[in-house]
Amino acid sequence: MSVAACTNSPMKSLYHSSEEDEEAEESSVTAAAKFVMRHLVNLISNFPSDVNSSRTFTSLQECHDLDISATEMCKDIFDSPNLQMFVFNKSTLLTVMEMQKRDISWPIGSSTIPSSTARILVRDLTGRYSANATMIYENRQAGPTTIKRSFSHTNISENLFDSSECGVINNTINNPLPSSNDQLDKMLRHIAESSPECQLQPGEPLDVPVEMTDDVTSYLEEQVKTTAAQHEQVEINLSSEQKTDFRLTVGRERAPQYSPTTLPYTLCRQLLNQMGYLSWETRHRIHLLKKTEKLLRELKHLDMQSCRETHKFAVIYVANGQEDKHSILSNSTGSSSFEEFVCGLGWEVDLTTHEGFMGGLQKNKSNGATAPYYCTSTLEVMYHVSTRMPSETEEDRHKKLRHIGNDEIHVVWSEHYRTYRRGIIPTDFANVIIIIYPLECGLYRIQIDKKPEVPFFGPLFDGAIVSKKSLPVLIRCTAVNASRIHRLTLPHFKPFFQVRMVCLDRIVKVCRMDTTFETFTAGVYAPSLADQDYLPLAAASLETEQAVEADINDSSKSRAGFSFSVGNTVFY
């Protein structure tokens, strides 16, 4: 082939590129490297998930579990005081939201269920992920720590403190000389009963008052009584003064009790601060997002993009003697060999509950109840099997033809003795047709019918002979490679990860808020006020300060000394 013929062929776009093509290729390589790195971290040893293999990302969105009435993404979620959105490292979108207590089972952690939970939604090249976080202060299995008293008589501590709210120490001299119940007499009786050896005279109690001697006159006795009564009154007055004098009272210290906070976004602020997102060193890596209608549209568009490579293939059964479209599309069952082959292509999924790639099929059973499906952590394949779709009426056959005819890759199982022709199923697509002919010896002959603009692909080739055991796997690999090589010939084709990167870059470029550190922290403290007039004014002030600083730097080069600015005021 001559050089001119090579440059005019469809392979030109694969081997010859301009400077723009080289830049696009470099961007594609960068996106591929970022995707591989994130894929290794997120999905290696984590696929399939505990839900199923058809989903590698979370189905949760900002509208779920938030205290709003919306059930889907809408502008109302931006008005919540418990939600804030960030962009991190210019490549990852973070939504940090706080939810009130739900009926959640906590297998470990605090003995009491927390009043709120923080949820982080992450969007990157590989998909959307979510994680919940809460504050845990103790090991639930160990139980709360208790402090035991070191003394047995608890009434001692109860008598030390007054029962009033102020907790004033109870002075024991409130009644220093009780007349009817003398504590000293009680103690002397107790000593005489418990320790007889302490008695002055055997059998004589210790609480018996000493007889008055003749030297003590009635006058002295009256003086002693009067002095004792005066002393008692002085003690009573002193005790009452001590109770009312705040300078002599000591308040009782009590342990603070837990009370749920009523301030919004408290737990999320703690989480962001503890993860280091609010520090000055990471300020250049994290920014707020403008919560506008444009951001909402871009998020919906990003969530619609696939997180894995997707393909849809048509699988057609041709029975013996069938050579026209009507008879082929009317097949509702196939031979046992055909059904066994289809089972090897993938596993059956219920279309009404399937959460992965649908390949254009509907959940309302209009295209059948089940379909074969295959996936890995980076690939999804949906098969449009002609015998799985309804074919009772003309409308059903028309729907079947619409799905099968729009597929780029056709896999035809032909049990007819004549060679399958491309024009039997009329379509403008079907760039590659892989035809399988069962042989009498138990092997299968492969015919590859591709359009001229489709480059070479494998592993199967035209005329290959394949065993029954390896047939499904080789057909699937060949169909996937044929679809990939065909897409590379399309002028504006981009891989799925590059499409997601373009969407992320557009959100970062259009919706990122360049604010000061003070404005950023204010937006974290009060998310509901972040999109009002305060932050745009702060952003404008930031631009003004940057322009003033630029002018200062230019002027300072031509004069000696130094200058600095505070706000919009310049000092020399």
Written overview of the protein:
With about 575 residues, this protein is α+β, with helices and mostly antiparallel strands. It has 15 helices and 16 strands. The strands form three sheets. The protein has an eight-stranded mixed beta sheet with strand order 7-8-9-6-10-11-12-13, with helices on both faces. A hairpin with a 3-residue loop joins strand 1 and strand 2 (about 90-100). The radius of gyration is 43 Å and the shape is elongated. The two termini are about 75 Å apart.
What does the main sheet amount to?
A: 8 strands, mixed
Strand order of the largest sheet: 7-8-9-6-10-11-12-13
| Share of helical residues | 25-40%
Mean pLDDT: 80
Structure keywords:
single chain; 572 residues; alpha+beta; eight-stranded mixed sheet; six-stranded antiparallel sheet; 16% strand; disordered N terminus; disordered C terminus
